[in-house]
User: What shape does this take?
Amino acid sequence: MSLEKIKQELLESYRSDGGINHLDGPNLPSRKAIDLLAEELIHLLFPGFFQHNEYTRERLGDLLEERLNQVHRTLTREVEKCLLSSGDAPGDGRGADESERILAAFPTIRRLLQTDVEAAYAGDPAARSYEEIILAYPCILAISLQRIARVAYEREIPLLPRMLTEYAHRQTGIDIHPGARIGSHFFIDHGTGVVIGETTTIGSNVKLYQGVTLGAKSFKVGPDGKLVKGIKRHPDIEDNVTIYAGATILGGETRIGRDSIVGANVWLMESIPTHSIAYYKGENLVVRSRKDHEKAEG
Assistant: This one.
């Protein structure tokens, strides 16, 4: 087949197969630009860790001003594209305003990330230093970008939140939706294959291992036959919970009570009470009080 014929067939496909074209519409945010922006945002959160040149306190103010101005320009441009994609007109300065709101959250995000690094150090006997955790642990990148994306998600900025968390997903194998609410001292050990859905809430001092899914049990369908969006679909994980590798917890009404442990490969679609342990004994799922379990084991 000649290239001319291929061109004509592709043009016909563009005309007839709608939905995956974006022609004559507003310019969409650039995935490459968002990926580079994600890296710059990480630099703002962890100064001196990922730069080629040494950072000193003496030069920090000037370097920060330069990077902040650059990030604000890039973020504003991409936010404006995101707003235009949904029909909003950012000509009133909303793009710059939204960018400033996101960046204004960084001191709070840094305080939360400090607790996440502390949790990783306390929770992993192989961790040798905070520097090792920040530089080498995939959960730090994934949690950092999710905490930023959560701010944009709350501001109802389209596209950008998911693009930021998907960059982290590609880099780490950890998939955290920007809509998830996550408390302090959050640690994901190893991390590969972790999935955390949009309406999940996670308390403080929660630890997950690789392969954990916090997902939806089912999807409600409306009268028009389409999925109903914006409803609670994912579980709630209370404070001081540990969930071991391969566990799957599903459903918007499912709650894991505080101070509980969910064992490896456990499948849960119902709540478990405070201070419980859930595990398999043979092929049977056992949910019991941790106190009773510890007495039996002792």
Summary: The chain is about 45% helix and 15% strand. The longest strand covers residues 276-281. The mean pLDDT is 91.
